[in-house]
Design goal:
Elements: H1 2-21, E1 28-37, H2 39-47, H3 51-71, E2 75-78, H4 85-88, H5 101-104, E3 111-129, E4 134-151, E5 157-174, H6 186-207, E6 212-216, E7 219-222, E8 235-246, E9 253-269, E10 274-281, E11 289-292
Parallel strand pairs: 1-2, 1-3
Antiparallel strand pairs: 3-4, 4-5, 6-7, 7-10, 8-9, 8-11, 9-10
Length: 303
């Protein structure tokens, strides 16, 4: 009897030890390499007296973007101090479909994220109401950027997205008073955080696309919930992964092939998941990947 008890205890300890030694799933790493305005945008901002506003928002965007990526709880975010000097100064704004050999040799991240500010405006318009001795001032901020999400394994651009945001504010003051609201950085901070959130959401979608977690008849459950980029009425193409694509010359993993197997429409968004209806089903199953269908009718390619 005693031997049986000891054997049972030993089995329990062995199972517990095995569970403790299991490695938790590793997070994918992303390196934010460089954020800067195009030369044309910089010169235009300076000619309009908006150079300081542009510089302020560009400087805050890097920290806001790193924070937004951390908050997604999907990535290990590499800071500038983690990167080689060549990668910190790399400029992939006009690199086409590939970031070139520099990224291929960079082993510190799964993804490289570059951001080029290609639109900026800080516009203030004032209207005087002399009869009541007041004036109203409207400030409009707008910024656009191209975010390149680069697969560090291959150097190929996995996603290139044009993203734009705007913020506005109306203030009232005594007529004749001309305070410059361009010194108010609160609106600039909001603009930066808004753009960072959109870029982080797109990066997350590329690295961790929505997936099917359950299917019952035509009801398909998706692992995207409230607070993510998903809404009732959204349409997604469904793809079945079919293994890795290996370069026969180099042995390099080029990613996985995806075969279209259906299409779903989101019908309800819950806190942690969403429900959808299969409008086309050629074998949709758990684990299949979803790609959002854009307005033109085509699913956005992310890999």
């Amino acid at each position: 009897m005693r031997k049986m008890v000891f054997a049972a205890l030993a089995a329990v300890f062995a199972i517990s030890a095995a569970a403790q030694t299991q490695k938790a799933p590793e997070k994918k790493s992303v390196a934010v390499v460089k954020i800067s305005p195009t030369e044309a945008v910089r010169k235009m901002a300076e000619s309009r007296g908006e150079g300081l506003s542009l510089e302020a928002v560009a400087q805050s965007l890097e920290a806001d973007l790193s924070s937004a990526l951390q908050n997604a709880r999907k990535f290990e975010v590499l800071t500038r101090s983690d990167l080689p000097e060549a990668m910190r100064e790399a400029d992939f704004g006009d690199s086409g479909n590939s970031a070139g050999g520099a990224v291929r040799n960079f082993k510190g991240a799964d993804y490289i994220l570059t951001v080029k500010i290609n639109d900026f405006q800080d516009y203030v318009k004032t209207a005087d109401f002399k009869l009541i001795g007041k004036s109203a001032q409207k400030r409009l901020l707008r910024m656009g950027a191209v975010a390149n999400i680069i697969d560090a394994r291959t150097g190929a651009i996995a996603e290139s997205a044009n993203i734009s945001v705007s913020e506005s504010e109306i203030s009232e003051r005594d007529a004749g008073v001309r305070e410059s609201s361009k010194l108010d950085r609160r609106l600039l901070a909001e603009l930066s955080k808004s753009l960072a959130a959109k870029i982080a959401a797109r990066a997350t979608e590329v690295a961790f696309p929505a997936k099917v977690v359950a299917k019952t008849g035509s009801l398909v459950t998706v692992n995207r919930g409230d607070g993510t980029d998903i809404a009732v009425g959204d349409v997604y193409e469904v793809y079945a992964p079919s293994g890795d694509l290996i370069d026969p010359d180099t042995g390099e993993n080029l990613g996985s092939e995806e075969i279209p197997v259906g299409r779903v429409e989101i019908t309800a968004v819950r806190p942690k998941f969403s429900l959808s209806r299969a409008v086309k089903d050629n074998g949709i199953a758990r684990g299949h990947v979803l790609r959002k269908v854009e307005a033109g009718g085509e699913a956005r390619e992310s890999e």
